[in-house]
Amino acid sequence: MKTRLTIHLFGRHINAFHFFGVLGFIGGAALGIALGNFCHLRLAVMLYLTLTSAAVSFLLAIVAKWITGEETIVYYHHEIAILVSCALLLRALREPILPYLDITVLGIGTLLAFGRLGCHSVGCCYGRPAEKGVVYSHAHVEAGFAAVTRGCPSPVQLIESAFVFLTVITGTFLILHHSPPGTTLIVYTLIYGSFRFGMEFFRGDADRPYWLALSEAQWTTLILMLVCTSFSIVGWFPFYWWEMAVSTAVLLSRLDDRALWAPETNWRKGHKIETERER
Q1: What is the pTM of this model?
Q2: Structural domains of the chain, count
Q3: Domain for residue 62, yes or no?
Q4: Do 155 and 1 contact (CB within 8 A), yes or no?
Q5: b vs e for 74-96, b when ≥16 Cβ sit within 10 Å of the residue's Cβ?
Q6: Quick one: which of 199, 258, 274, 189 has its CA closest to 230?
Q7: Exposed end of the chain (fewer CB within 10 Å): N or C?
Q8: Does 1 reside within a domain?
Q9: Using one digit for the tens of pLDDT, what is the confidence trace for 141-193?
């Protein structure tokens, strides 16, 4: 499964990650405006939210590059920052928050789905070495992705992209069938979160924050599930019995198997050391 670091378009070579990122933003914005029109929400507010989302993402990318010295994008950081910023804006505008956030989170999901295609193309967020997987070229190594040369990484980016596309389609279906406001936000948070929690065990890029054998993304997933369920219990979000079931299942999946996954921590440490030596 070969990848291309750049996209040839209109006689120019464009970085694949940037190309899919722009495509995802356009797709997310178009989906948001279309759903907003279907739900009879104010077009001006939808445009404000789109601009706010773009500004927040751009600002986070700049701050991350200033801190780390390289282009670093953490999906959950952007999702949380965008949703909080949009919620504050809606409150300031005295608009109903949940109907707009349902649509906003689908726009974010669309960006993620396309963004993972970009990750697959340039070699970031890669999976563990596998017998059959992604084949990266020497150009990727020159670009700084030396770690991916250790075997053929499994295509976790493509798997996540496909799953997120399905999640966005599901959320769109819920909105089109007039589900209670907040339902789509709950479904996206819990369904994607459950998937992301499990997918993290197949990631091969070990140079990310871990604590008690769980990655930053997994801890963030647990926190978001807890927040989402708590908001439902107090009546801020709609309440569904399966929220408790999904959140509890994900939490219990890690309570008794810490020893089982201890070798994973050692594998990550060893892989990180070898990666640093390669670089």
Answers
A1: 0.87
A2: 1
A3: yes
A4: yes
A5: ebbbbbbebbebbbebbeeeeee
A6: 189
A7: C
A8: no
A9: 666 565 555 567 788 999 999 999 999 999 999 999 999 999 999 999 999 99
